[in-house]
Every structure is written in structure tokens, then in C-alpha cells.
Amino acid sequence: MRTQYFEYLAPSSIEEAVKMLKEYEEAKILAGGQSLIPLLKTRITVFPYLVSLSSIPGLSYISLDKDKLRLGPMTVVSDIEYSGDLMKRLPVLTEAASQIADPLVRNMGTVGGNVSHADPSNDMPPVMLALRARFTVQGPSGTREIRASDFFVDTFQTAMNHDEILREISVDLPRGRSAGTYVKFKKRAGDFSLGTVALNVVFESGNTVKEAGIAVASLGPKPLEITDAEEYLRGKELNSNAAEHVARIVSERVEPVADYYGDVDFKRRIARAITLEAFRRINVKVG
Asked: Where is the FAD-binding PCMH-type domain (predicted)?
């Protein structure tokens, strides 16, 4: 199905894009278009103006220093997927990137679009929650920073105002030994996921957990950080008992709805299973 008619706007700077959003209240930001354009083709949602970021220089980058990762919003997913430095330092991020749709989508879709679209089945939001990312957004009054825990408000809704644009994503890199993984469950290749979990663990000594980040998606109206599971893990050995306890917490905290793919109990069992698998993979990585 074709999209309904829209006017394509191509600003040359963030400031110009912000002005367009302020002028056209029904406008929508267009990044890579891999989430937005399919939605427009359904005609469930109509935007008469699309403000493209593709002509604005300096929005695509992966910057890593000793303590911090910075991502430009127009960085395509495949650049994250194949970044050797990210594979070593934040494998949960590269694993999630590698599981998004197919190579064509990963070559065109952007990290900024994936998080800003706030689709509850998207892969980057739970990773950003598990990594406690921060989002720098720019609007008419300048820039402000939003924590990942405050960013995802509801289905297709973020904490950004209409006239604000995502300018940068930043993540504090873990100090010391760490491991991360991303598990995604779907019935067939190409299907939407029925449950995903991002797990990132920082160790203080041996297999004792210093800090953990756990977040899920596709199991409720928005991606969800499982904070009580994170708190439980602090100071614990990463063993089978801890994995079982956390898996139970996750299955209880998710907010799935019954649909074509299964009932609520089935989806809670998915939450438990993918959490246990994430722990298994982490234990394999750390030996």
C-alpha cells in the first residue's frame, strides 16, 4: 500500500529542523524511515509533513573514549553491529543490533530512529535501559538530557516534546570486568519478537555482581527495566539460583497482553525462558 501524500522537508541544521517542527505542529521527524514509512503505509497514522535529518551533517558517529560511548542519532544500525570496539566493550549493544530485522533494514535504519519511534517491540530501547543511557535532545530552548529510565513513556511515546530532536546518546562504559548479551524470541525469521531481554553485568571479584542492568521489550506497552531484579543481583554470585530468582521476578513484572501469538501465561513463560538463556550466555562468556 502507498503512503498518503506528505510534504518532505530537508533542513540543513538541527536548529532549522527544530524551527520546522515548531512551525508545523503535525510534522514528524524522519531518520532512516525503517519504522516510520511502514507505519505510514498502513494509513493508521498520517503526518502531512516529514522533516528529514538526512541532510544535516555530523549526526552519524560512534565515539568511544576511556569512560564513555557517544552515538550520533543518524548512526545506522549496521555500523554498530560491526564495530569491533563495541563488540569488545558493549557486546549487549552489538548483539541487539545484529538481530534487528534484516541486513537491508540494518543498513538504512538508525539508532536514533529506533529509540525515538518507541515501538514496544524495537530492540534498541531495552538495551539503552540496561546500559542506563542518557539522551541529549535539542529544542527551541536549547538542549537537555533525559535518562533512559524516563525516556520511554508509553507505546510510540517518549519524553521528548514535539519540537525536540534527539541529538546524542551517551553511555558510561563499565569499569572493570563486564559481560552483556541480548536474547530475542520469535516464532519465525522475520516475525516480530514475542520477547527480548538485554542483560549487562559488571563484576567486582570472581562472579560476584557489582552492578547489573536488565530490561525487556515486546512484553508490555513499553520497554521495561526490571529494577528489583537489578537490586537483587548486587553482591550475589552469578549462579543458577540467582538466575532462577531473577527469571521469576522478570516473569512477574512484565505486562503482556493476550493476542494472536499467545495468552498472558505463555508470554510470561517466554519472559522467564529468555532471562534464563541470557544468564546462561553470560556464564559461558565469563567462564
From this structure: 1-176
What element of type H or E holds 182?
strand 178-185
Radius of gyration (Cα) for the chain, nearest Å? 19
Amino acid at 154: D
pLDDT of residue 44: 67
Number of residues assigned to the chain: 287
CATH superfamily, region 178-286: CO dehydrogenase flavoprotein, C-terminal domain (3.30.390.50)
What single-letter amino acid sits at 236?
K
Residue with cell 558517529: 61
Q: What is the pLDDT of residue 5?
A: 74
- Is residue 254 within 8 A of residue 267, CB to CB? The reply is yes
Closest-CA residue to 283 (of 251, 237, 222): 237
| One-character DSSP codes across 110-144 | BHHHHHHS--TT-SHHHHHHHTT-EEEEEETTEEE
Quote the CA–CA distance of 262 and 254 in Å, as a whole number. 15
What spatial distance separates the first Cα and last Cα of the chain, rounded to whole Å?
Answer: 50
Per-residue model confidence (pLDDT) at position 281: 98
Residues 119-130 pLDDT 10s: 999 999 999 999
Q: What span, in angstroms and rounded, lies between the C-alpha atoms of 240 and 277?
A: 11
In the DSSP assignment, the letter for residue 76 is: B
Q: Which residues of the chain have pLDDT under 50?
A: none
Task: Note whether 96 and 123 are within 8 A (CB).
Answer: yes
- Phi, psi dihedrals of residue 157, rounded to the nearest 5°: -140, 125
Its CATH class, for the domain covering 62-172, is alpha beta
